[in-house]
Amino acid sequence: MLFQTLLIVGLLLLGIFLTSAKKVFGNKLYLLISFFTLFILSAFRSINIGNDTEDYLYMFQNFGQSQDIFGIDTRIEIGYVALNKVLFLISSNPLILFGVTSAFVIGVFMLFMYKNSNIFWFSVFLFINLRIYYFTLSGIRQAIALAIILISYKFIKERKPIPFSLLVLLASSFHASAIFFFLVYPLSKIKYSKKVMLMYTFVGGVLFLTFNYTIGIILNILPQYENYLSSSYFESIKLASIIDFIIILLIFLFGLFTSHRFLSSADRRLVEENSKNSSGSSSLNILLHIISLAVMITFIAINGAVIKRAALYFFMFAVIFIPYTIQNIKNKKVRVLTLYLIFVLVFAYNLIILIYRPEWQRVYPFEFFWQLK
């Protein structure tokens, strides 16, 4: 536990120091330091770190040695199978798998936060303490899909449906659940309002109550996820699903109270102008839709673990949504106090799970591959 605590606090203090002195240079330096720190931990972890790491090691050997990747009898998506084959041709050492995937996933996350976050160092803190980073240590193929989805965010803002669609399809070739992110593009064209919020609430409630029927339709489309319906798996993460719902709901409510929709008319116009890119699309509007979908899907996921994976594509945007909404607080003292209050709560959330539920993602105690006994 000391290692995790020192890592988190060290990156936090370094981020505050570097970005408060010279913001542009400090952010770039912090980008490099935080990337290499998290990359080294991910690339050189032992197979005991992450619930599925050992399975991915087996798949690397199996797919790599196969003569015909299209003839493999597997539920794993073809994009991930092909990646393993290519990497195995370069080297049969599994470090190449962990190294390449870690560099891509962490690199994309870092660049995404650097370009889109109002408080970059705080986004890195949230990336770790909302346990998104921990997930990337375990679910490699979905982590790749998550990273590709982050790249697609740019094309939602720029209103470019073709590159957005191609990226979502590419992400779904690594993890089919990425297909759910197609929802964001058409919804982002709708101006967020109380009526829209009620629509999400109503749809979420209906899908929750009709879960058994809905999940049957989903599994007809994505039959490879039937194993997530097993009672043992479902019960083991039901508590996690409830906690995830509470966390994302609190994040959403916090965003509502600090968003421009609850400011004066003059402040509303100012925030709206600042949140627009060159094509006129509001980042805040897009993020409110994404976080609303995260709330809705995590609520439905309480009924069944099979939905939980889909929520990650929306939940991960909290790392830029929270800093964005903090910046909407005009009073500097209140803004700083709010930031550090969220810091304490999120840090405590992470440590409590690490201590009392280490089996959820198996990242504690941490060990490198050379420490494997």
From TrEMBL:
The chain crosses the membrane at residues 31-50, 95-113, 140-156, 162-185, 197-222, 242-263, 284-304, 310-326, 338-356. Keywords: Membrane, Transmembrane, Transmembrane helix. InterPro entries: EpsG-like. Signal peptide: none annotated. It comes from the Bacteria. Pfam families: EpsG. This is Capsular polysaccharide biosynthesis protein.
